[in-house]
Every structure is written in structure tokens, then in C-alpha cells.
């Protein structure tokens, strides 16, 4: 099950990918991480999917990451007397706290926090931005608006307020319940929706209490503005282009994507590019050329992972979607221009021993016939530093901790291997050589680079590097130093 690409594929599970046979097929086609969307499905359904993934993990003997995506605070308008109305451009329309059924002139908006934050001149978007209202007058329980872009508005359509930071709790009561449920299951990553500020991440981290890594979804203008601070307190990032493209002009999204991916690469933190990557494959066995180009662009940028949403969760061709994404990745990464772009966008070396070791490992791999960089890691830090360098050769991450192995499945170039605890560097080299041989990274005469930290089993101590032949695997476990 060695992947022939370095970018990872995240596949969302849903009604179209609920059985063990289908989930196994998705894994075999190339899915490295499975996303459980907490916005859909009961806890019992999500528990069953989680159990199937772990069964497949045991069956193949390869760690698989599970990402639980929290719904986040959903803002929706109320109900209409006739189910829907047509708003006409330049007409007046009121949003208020009145529970009465809506008409062509008003509707309930059951979110007082929105009214508390609104000011005249600001924009309110409804139904994924299809309806655009401009606030003319507002108070604690109402907003009188002018329709700038009209159309049909119906029951409980989503509402976006792009111009302000809303005084909303980052986690709704449902999110808190889902977070505890996901952590008790043993998921590896928690994705936070509609993050606005670093404090939102801190709240989720406190609740997770080390049981899962925290990934922040960037889908609001406020998050883009505060991105450096959000990145600093997050373990990973998702560029969630769906809502981001609703709240910002669509032409702003591509440059924002590039900036965020570059910043994550510089920080050595995994970044997923998500939303509508192969949307047409929900109903078609082949994607559009534009979708293929979109996936390729994210890979050329050096993203750690690309994600399928409805394509694998509810589409008619989930396996074909994963297969196509895998094929695009293999083709892009074989392009010489890909290496040129990756290396041209590499960040400057940092001033620490661990960073110097990982830079040296990458440089050795680029100037010799080394077939893999093998790193021993407890916390995952060593492996992430190697991944930040985007080396030309595969990265074998060896760890005795299954949680670390699973979390690293999201990171670029990583082949994660469970190994026993080691107390001597010589045995670390032996174990690395055995892993390289077992998973077909090379044969006896080939060489690997091994990095580790002495003393072992202490996070953040990467301080040693050795070049060794895979033949080292033949050494007796009990040979003394």
C-alpha cells in the first residue's frame, strides 16, 4: 500500500460510502485520511464508520487518519408563510427577531448576536451569497435593508455577515457534544468551522485536552486577517474555499489560497485545500478539465492534502473520484516543473539544531542516491520538520505511538510506520532499514538517511543524522554498540 505520490487525499464519508466494502475501496484507490462530517449523520452512524476504518487499518497494517469536522455555528433565517418569496432588487426588506412567518417584506433572523454587531452600510448575504442585502438602519432586534441582489429566498437559508466579527461562541452546544463524542471515539484530527480568532482555537484545544490535533478551517474574512495568530495556535489548516468564496469576492480566493498554503509550509504545519475540487463527479464519472487544473494547482503549490467532500460522501462515483485525484497527483509530481516550483518556494532555514539536521537530510537526499529519509519521532515534530523541506525522496516516519502515526498521515510525503521503542541509535537505524526494505523503498545496496533525537523518547530533541545502507536491517537486535 505504498503511495506513489507525496500529497495526501482526504475523502469524506457519507451515504455513498457507508459500507466496509466501499470504504476499503476508497482506501485502496488512494484515500489517506477519512473525514467524518459532524453536520450530517447520527452519532451511531459516525461510530459505525469509525469502527470500519479501524478494521481496515488493522487489515492492511497501515495507519489511517480520521478527521472529525465540527459543524460550527450555523446562521439561518426563519420560515416563510408560503415557504419562499422573491426579493426584488432595490426593494426594502427587514430582518428581525419576530417569530411570525416571513413575507416579501420581512423574515425572522433568530440571532440577536448579528444585530448586536451590525452597523449601517454593512452587507448581509443569504443562500450562499445569492441574495445580497445592504443594511440601512439597524437596532438590537432589527435590520432594515435594501435588496442589492434579489432572487428567491426560502425557509432556513444560510446567512453570512462578511464585514464583521460576530460575537459568537466558536463552539455551539452541538459542537461541544460532538467534540467530546469524537474524542471519546479516538479521532486523530478535529476540524473547527468558522474560526474567527485564535481564542476560538484555544477553546477547542482545552476541550480536546490532547486527545486530537486541532485543524482550523479558514472560511471567513476575519480568519484571513488574523491568520498568522490562528496558524500559531493550530496544528493544521484547511483552506475551506466554499464559505470563503461566499463572504469574499470570488477573485480573491485563489491568491488567498496561495498565501495560506505558503504560510503553512513555512510553519511546517499541514494544510488541506478543500471544497468543490471535483464537484462534477457527484454525478459524472469524469471531472471537468477546470477541476483537474484546480487539483493540480493545489499540488503545485505544495499543499499537504487535497479533499473530496460530496464527491465521495454522496456522489455516484466515489471510488472514481479518489482514483482520479490520485492519478492527477502522480502525474503532477512527475512533472519537472513541479520540483522547480516546490524548491523555488521553500522557506529559508531556521536557526536550530533540529532544523539544521532536517535541512541536511534533505540536501544529502538531493545530492546522493539516497532512497528515503527515515525519522524517528514521538510527538511528530521531527517528521513535520522533514516534510517542511519537501524533499525529493519519500519520508518514512517511524514511531511507537499509534496516535502520532495516524496524525502524520495527513502530512506531505509521509509513509507512517509503527515501530517498537528503541533506546540506542544503532537500533533506530536497523529498524529504519527494515522498514525501507519491507515497504519496497529500496534493496540492500540502497542507502537511507536516518534522523532521530538523543536521548530517545523526548520530543523536540532531533540532533543526530546518519546515512546507512538498507542492508543494515540484517543486524542482530541484540548486538552491542
Quick synopsis:
With 481 residues, the protein is of the alpha/beta class. Helix content is 37%, strand content 23%.
Tertiary shape: elongated
- What structural class do helix, strand and pairing data support? alpha/beta
Can you name the CATH architecture of the largest domain?
A: Alpha-Beta Barrel
> In terms of per-residue confidence, which ranges show pLDDT below 50 for 5 or more consecutive residues?
none
Question: Termini separation (Å)?
Answer: 34 Å
Domains, number: 3
Task: Determine Rg (CA atoms, Å).
Answer: 24 Å
Please bin the fraction of helical residues: 25-40%
Count of individual beta strands? 21
Kindly report the spatial arrangement of strands forming the biggest sheet: 1-2-3-12-13-14-15-16
Q: What is the CATH topology classification name of the largest domain? A: TIM Barrel
Strand content: 15-25%
Let me know the average pLDDT.
94
Sketch the major β-sheet.
8 strands, parallel, barrel
Count of helical segments? 17
- Oligomeric assembly: single chain
Indicate the CATH class of the largest domain. Alpha Beta
CATH homology-level superfamily of the largest domain: Phosphoenolpyruvate-binding domains
Amino acid at each position: 500500500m505504498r503511495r506513489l505520490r507525496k500529497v495526501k487525499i482526504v475523502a469524506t464519508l457519507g451515504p455513498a460510502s457507508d459500507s466496509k466494502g466501499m470504504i476499503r475501496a476508497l482506501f485502496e484507490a488512494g484515500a489517506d485520511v477519512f473525514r467524518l462530517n459532524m453536520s450530517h449523520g447520527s452519532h451511531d452512524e459516525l461510530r459505525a464508520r469509525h469502527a470500519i476504518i479501524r478494521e481496515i487499518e488493522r487489515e492492511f497494517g497501515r495507519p489511517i487518519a480520521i478527521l472529525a469536522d465540527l459543524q460550527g455555528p450555523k446562521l439561518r433565517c426563519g420560515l416563510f408563510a408560503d415557504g419562499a418569496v422573491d426579493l426584488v432588487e432595490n426593494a426594502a426588506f427587514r430582518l428581525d427577531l419576530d417569530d411570525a412567518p416571513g413575507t416579501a417584506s420581512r423574515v425572522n433572523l433568530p440571532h440577536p448576536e448579528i444585530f448586536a454587531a451590525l452597523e449601517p452600510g454593512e452587507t448581509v448575504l443569504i443562500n450562499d451569497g445569492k441574495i445580497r442585502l445592504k443594511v440601512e438602519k439597524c437596532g438590537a432586534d432589527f435590520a432594515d435593508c435594501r435588496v442589492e441582489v434579489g432572487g428567491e429566498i426560502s425557509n432556513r437559508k444560510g446567512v453570512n455577515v462578511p464585514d464583521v466579527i460576530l460575537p459568537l461562541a466558536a463552539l455551539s452546544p452541538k459542537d461541544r457534544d460532538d467534540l467530546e463524542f469524537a474524542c471519546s471515539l479516538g479521532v486523530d484530527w478535529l476540524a473547527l468551522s468558522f474560526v474567527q480568532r485564535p481564542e476560538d482555537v484555544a477553546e477547542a484545544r482545552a476541550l480536546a485536552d490532547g486527545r486530537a490535533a486541532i485543524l482550523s478551517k479558514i472560511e471567513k474574512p476575519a480568519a484571513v486577517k488574523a491568520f498568522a495568530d490562528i496558524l500559531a495556535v493550530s496544528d493544521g489548516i484547511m483552506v475551506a474555499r466554499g464559505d470563503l468564496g461566499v463572504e469574499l469576492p470570488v477573485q480573491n480566493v485563489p491568491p488567498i489560497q496561495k498565501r495560506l498554503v505558503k504560510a503553512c509550509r513555512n510553519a511546517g504545519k499541514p494544510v488541506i485545500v478543500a471544497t468543490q475540487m471535483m464537484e462534477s463527479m457527484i454525478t459524472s464519472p469524469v471531472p471537468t478539465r477546470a477541476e483537474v487544473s484546480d487539483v493540480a494547482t493545489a499540488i503545485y503549490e505544495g499543499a499537504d492534502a487535497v479533499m473530496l467532500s460530496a464527491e465521495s460522501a454522496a456522489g455516484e462515483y466515489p471510488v472514481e473520484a479518489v482514483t482520479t485525484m490520485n492519478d492527477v497527483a502522480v502525474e503532477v509530481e512527475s512533472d519537472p516543473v513541479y520540483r522547480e516550483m516546490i524548491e523555488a518556494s521553500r522557506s529559508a532555514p531556521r536557526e536550530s539544531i533540529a532544523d539544521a539536521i532536517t535541512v541536511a537530510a534533505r540536501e544529502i537526499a538531493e545530492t546522493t542516491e539516497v532512497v528515503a529519509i527515515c525519522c524517528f519521532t514521538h510527538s511528530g515534530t521531527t517528521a513535520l520538520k522533514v516534510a517542511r523541506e519537501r524533499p525529493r525522496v519519500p519520508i518514512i516516519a517511524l514511531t511507537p505511538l499509534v496516535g502520532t502515526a495516524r496524525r502524520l498521515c495527513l502530512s506531505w510525503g509521509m509513509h507512517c510506520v509503527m515501530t517498537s521503542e528503541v533506546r540506542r541509535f544503532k537500533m533506530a537505524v536497523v529498524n529504519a532499514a527494515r522498514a525501507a526494505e519491507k515497504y519496497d523503498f529500496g534493496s540492500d545496496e540502497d542507502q537511507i538517511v536516518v534522523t532521530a533525537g538523543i536521548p530517545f523518547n523526548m520530543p523536540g530533541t532531533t540532533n543526530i543524522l546518519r546515512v546507512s545502507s538498507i542492508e543494515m536491517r540484517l543486524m542482530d537486535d541484540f548486538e552491542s554498540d
